[in-house]
Amino acid sequence: MVKGANVGLTTLSEDVGSVMVSLGWSSATGEGDADVSVLLLDGDGKVRSDVDFCFYNNPVAGNGSVQLLGKTPTADGSEDRISFDLDAVPQEIEKVVVAASRYAGSRFGDLNDLRLTLADSAGDGLVRFAVEGADDVSAVIFGELYRRSGEWKFRAVGQGYASGLAGLATDYGVDIDDDAEQEGPESSGPEQDGPEQEGPGRDASEQPAATGQGGPERPARVPAQTRGSDPAALTAPAAPRAAAEPESADTAPVPKPARRPRTAKKKVTLPRTAKKSLADNDTWRTARLFPVSALKSDRERETRATSVVLSVMAQVPEFGRRLTAGFGAPAGRMETFTEVTLPHGESPRRPDGVVRVERAGKLWTALVETKTNGNALKPDQVQAYMDIAARRGYEAVITLSNDVALEGSPLVDVRIDRRRKHKVALWHLSWAEVVHQAQMLIRHEGVGNAAHAWLLQELLQYLQHENSGCHGFQNMGAAWVPVRRGIDDETLCRGDARALEVIENWERLVRQVCLRLGGELGQKVLPVQRARRGSDPGARRAELADHLCEQGRLSAEIRIEGTPGVLAITADLRTGKLRTSIEVPAAEPGYPLSRAKRLVRRLSEAPADLHIETLVGGEGAGPRGTLERLRPEPADILPKDGAQITGFRLSLFKGMGNGRGSAETGFIRSVDEAVDRFHAQVVAHLEAPVP
Fold this sequence. Notes:
alpha+beta; six-stranded antiparallel beta sheet
């Protein structure tokens, strides 16, 4: 679509009762990011109240009809996905604005390939809109969903705001509760691109109304400065505004502390520390809702795991919605079933489970096929369920296993009968993602009541038990040992299919590391994909496989929200060493020796074998040394020729496991341990750039 054009959704697909909108971008460094927000507007073009402003700190709005699903890595970077249950949007809402904003003085000009895509409930792409000309703005309206004659339509907007999220929110009736973050020029209006011309698919009656005009202002207490706020302010009472006092020429204004939006209802999370046990000794085991001691076969594990997860999904609405919203399910009453018999030719089929969601008299149904203990999905089984779903008018088939799906590399190839009018979507979940979503809810974001928190905790205890078989990706594959041997004896050649298999499994492992670490920290943790814009994922992996054959190294980068750099992981298969590192930028002010001393002081709790390398401008290399040697003599890290210091690279080295699995001596466990140690002992102390 082009800027200003609009289209009716029902003209593109019959499955638009719920749609998925994705906002994407990429950057040369892989570090660019933005926050997505959605505003629900009434007939006056204003929000009704604070519940109509949906953003990362308030991810659900419109009675559950709008939900932010978070970031998903792509070959070009990452994209934020938003689920819209259009049938459930309140009748008073006539327009839904989809926007994104940058923070800390960043502008959208630093990002490439700004785009919006819209897909129907079956996952088929319907709309793609590339946003251009947003170089000097810090907030952009990507598009709008709006009602016209009882039908939902989409308009490609691409309008920028130089004043950032504060200006955008104010124009739509959001009342800024505290001093707005100064992200740009004083003006709060949208970037002026000149009058828009009517074009194909756009009539004069559908021109967007001027922002900030018309209709009474609706209060919504949302501070624009949300970055860096104190999380405790989520439930803190609002402080009264102090009367403004004149400022003298030599008196600097005292900034007010930023506060996050207040939640309408306090959520329940698990306490940080466990209560003192009443057991006589350590041999007593706590009674569990979902026991695992009786599990003896793979079939028993699959049956138990399916029943446990589906039952908790039905009883804890927040959890069930998180797992199904990304698959196009509406927000409604959910029921789950196991061991359902469905006719299929001469031999009936029994999928492991069925999920049904009812909203406004309409049913959304998904068949579930589960595997545990590393067992692979069977293509013939999945194909049969796809055929059954198509005949019965079901919307989706969901596969759930230890494996991690990769973009452009489906776990199961199925045949789609294009002659069928009804479309069925095939989705995949990893057990690692189920664990991640449960952790995010009960440890960081909270659920509706204590009973729901307890149910999720019991689910976690079950999934993480060694006998459950639900441990996520745990095997580097049959090609792992031959590839390592080929690298050792230098017989591995470019184009070897086994090297490509290792690259795919390495990518799965890195994505699982991000899920696990993100669930523990409660922060966004995503793999960084440094690929050319528009590059094919398969071609990118083939290129990485050739590098593996030539250099004998596996490399990856992950970005952790709130850290000053990107955490790099390198597995050198020639030396058997794992390297975890991060490059920390050095601020301009200050003497070089002061910077070195402050860095060493900040790393007082870091391991003595931490390697520190000074990064200098130009092509030269700076001095390096271990923290143990630099603690008494920080000046040893300074360049002797007076070269400008641009930053520091901090690295830890660890021997990597030989086995392809996650046993004590396995490669997967060694990667997990290396990342955990480096984050806890190094990265956690580097929440801000070294001054």
